[in-house]
Amino acid sequence: MEPRPRIAVTAGEPAGIGPDLCAIAAAGRFDARLVFVGDRAVIADRAARRGLAFDLPDYFPGSAAPRSLLHLPAPAPVTAGRLDPANGRHVLALLDRALDGCRSREFAAMVTAPVQKSTINDAGVAFTGHTEYLAGRTGTARVVMMLVGGGMRVALATTHLPLAAVPAAITREGIVETLRIVDRELRARFGIDRPRILVAGLNPHAGESGHLGREEVDTISPALESLRREGMALTGPLPADTLFTARLLEGADAVLAMYHDQGLPVLKHASFGHAVNVTLGLPVIRTSVDHGTALDLAGNGDIDAGSIGAAIDLAIDLARREQERADAHAAAS
Does residue 120 surpass a pLDDT of 90? Predict the structure, then answer.
């Protein structure tokens, strides 16, 4: 087994704090070979502004260097804090290179710094987020966004949708597929033998037996019953306002929230700046930070690099567990 997995770390939006995070992470202690994917001049400039050295060697396939840089130049000059749509496609090129490396097993996992969705869209590319983009690039029909932090794992049934569009997006088939992915990934990648999952309702009081909405009665409960018959350990649908209490959480391995702002505010309140975004269901391991580009802090602000550090650490753990599974399978065959 590779003792130090090779992890690709993308720099994200060049005008944001992604290059700063790369500069800080390059000076950190991680039990892995880190390959930073970005523009050398941009990352070196942010490092210099923060009094850090950034003299990593160029990356080449098979490199054993503990830290290296895969240089992909930004096509337009970069000014910290100032967005430029001319660099929108550059951000996607960073993702594409890291993803291609993961799919070919050149990299064991990828960690992504934040991107600016508006700039990518202004560059003429329809883009709603890392999660959806990576799903499209890998031809994955359904992926699940899950954040890890504050002693919680919170997965989402829907992601970047207007709130008005959420009820129609909650379907029995969608809930079933999402929970199957969460259950499978918790077993395979997190090493949990029989995951215990709490499932939130969509409506206040989980619909109050249909008086405050029918989604729990008509959609969520039937989906959960069908999965319980398959052996999954599911509790719900539960009212979201009491689901995140210590008594319930201490007996759970994960929570499934129905929409983005139902579950994530609680987790981020408990762990903002140190939580990790994990994409479940992909054929590769991908983790990310729990925050945005913070344009006002790029190059000179006081930033907390806790989330990028946690994302790298979790990627390393997941990569090692996947390698152990592969080695065990090979030994048994």
Answer: yes
Q: What angle do CA 136, 138, 143 make, to 5 degrees?
A: 65
Measured CA angle at 136 (ends 191, 185), to 5 deg: 10
Q: Reply yes or no on domain 1-140+282-333 having CATH 3.40.718.10.
A: yes
Q: Are strands 276-280 and 144-149 parallel, antiparallel or unpaired?
A: antiparallel
> What is the rounded distance in angstroms from the CA atom of residue 9 to the CA atom of residue 1?
21
* Nearest residue to 56 via CA among 64, 46, 67, 48: 67
Q: Which two tokens stand for residue 99?
A: 């993803």
CB-based contact 152:255 (threshold 8 Å): yes
Domain ranges within the chain, ordered by starting residue: 1-140+282-333, 143-276
Q: What whole-number distance in Å separates Cα of residue 117 and Cα of residue 97?
A: 19
Residue 278's nearest CA partner among 156, 96, 141, 137 is: 156
Total Cβ atoms within 10 A of residue 139 = 7
Tell me the pLDDT tens digit for each residue of 254-302: 999 999 999 999 999 999 889 999 999 999 999 999 999 999 999 998 9
By the 8 A CB rule, do 115 and 19 touch? Answer: no
Residue 1 has pLDDT above 50, yes or no: no
Residue with tokens 């970047």: 160
pLDDT of 314: 97
Do the domains at 1-140+282-333 and 143-276 have one common CATH topology? yes
3, pLDDT greater than 80 = no
Query: Are 94 and 29 in contact, with CB atoms under 8 Å apart?
Result: no
Residue 209 tokens, joined: 């037996």
Classify domain 143-276 at the CATH superfamily level: Isopropylmalate Dehydrogenase (3.40.718.10)
